[in-house]
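ENCODED BACKBONE
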Amino acid sequence: MILLQAGDLFRGADPNSRMIIYFGIALLGVVGLILVGALLSRRNRPRSAAENQQYSSSVFRRAARAMGLAAPHVAMLENLVRVCKVKQPFLVFSNAGLLDDALKKGLYSLDNARDLAPEERENRRAIIFQIKQIIERNARKGAVLRSTTFLRSGQQLSITPENGVQFSSKVISNMKDFLTVSAPAVPAGADSRWMRGTRLAVYLWRDNDAGYSFPSKVLGYDTVKA
């Protein structure tokens, strides 16, 4: 019908002109279908772990305050992880090596900042040292676990799906918005995967601290760190 209407509208054109018009309309239709298909494919494509791991300033600041850092410390630490392009910023609260690397770069930057007054340079230097002391002090005394954000890789877990039995697992990686854990081993012949959305009860015990439990659910399956 579209081609017939186009032919009526351009009745005075010669046959070659009409063929060009028809070809142009058909070409636009094909391009439109390709674009729609690409958009649908992108929308339905599963998000990778890297795409899901998006940095949130508000969550980072909340985690830093939970570690006992005051506003100046939080602002300094957030600036350092951004300038140093730390791929997993939340690990600075649990990985001493990663924290030290960011703080050392901050000290080096201060030593080479010629536009800072000596008093301001010393003030910022003191803040950097205080960040290390506060985080290490809380880590040594086994600070209360206030969020799954602070769960470390290798932490042993007990996972119980709703109306199911308990399975053993461990944290593989902490992605802030979600945890990647080892897929629990199941008896021979049983389904090796739980359905997405399955509700779970998770329990863990931290050495020299206490036991913790929290509700969770299955978001999906992916391969992380092989």
